[in-house]
Amino acid sequence: CDSKPCLNKGTCSKINGLEYQCACSEGFTGKDCSDEINPCDSKPCLNKGTCSKINGLEYQCACSEGFTGKDCSDEINPCDSKPCLNKGTCSKINGLEYQCACSEGFTGKDCSDEINPCDSKPCLNKGTCSKINGLEYQCACSEGFTGKDCSDEINPCDSKPCLNKGTCSKINGLEYQCTCSEGFTGKDCSDEINPCDSKPCLNKGTCSKINGLEYQCACSE
């Protein structure tokens, strides 16, 4: 051992005669501790990670995408960070890729965009749309229209406003016009015409209505 055969701070011990044995310091091996140990030789970095020697037996792994940990053995789950907002459900696709199944009323990569059902302009015929809840909406229809989407045109004649067998005609919007049957007049044909109102019986004759526009005169003597 006097010749200091053990290199790199190895410790020499005499065994027998000229035989000796080296106790190598960390990071070295071999008969004379001349061989440097490379911790990367054992390929400690898993999942295609890249190994770099730091000092002695110390090493560092540069992990490939989707993995982490001292030896790159831990798979990263992109859903662990809860990227899907507004109660969306996250599913891992590949590596760090994920996909969100958004809850009703939301869209976008992370379900951060709120869907406005009024954006599609569902209210027809100049109706006004108001969002209620989620994908629900309500239409305030313009005059003359009704229905969920204001698609149904209101016919004012459906309510049969023309009385006494009058005929109804739609004019514009909720406007209508009645063509009254004989003997009736007025907006809704509700007023009965009295032929005696025009005083058709001359010379003090007395008028009596018979039927419709028919009348009879009782003449004076």
TrEMBL record:
Keyword Signal: yes
Disulfide feature: C24-C33, C63-C72, C102-C111, C141-C150, C180-C189
Domain of life: Eukaryota
Keyword Disulfide bond annotated: yes
Domain EGF-like: 1-34, 36-73, 75-112, 114-151, 153-190, 192-221
Transmembrane segments annotated in the record for this chain: none
UniProt-listed GO biological process terms: anatomical structure formation involved in morphogenesis; animal organ morphogenesis; cell morphogenesis involved in neuron differentiation; dendrite development; neuron migration
GO cellular component, one term: neuron projection
The entry's keywords: Developmental protein, Disulfide bond, EGF-like domain, Glycoprotein, Repeat, Signal
Pfam families named in the record: EGF
Recorded GO MF terms: calcium ion binding
Protein name listed in UniProt: EGF-like domain-containing protein
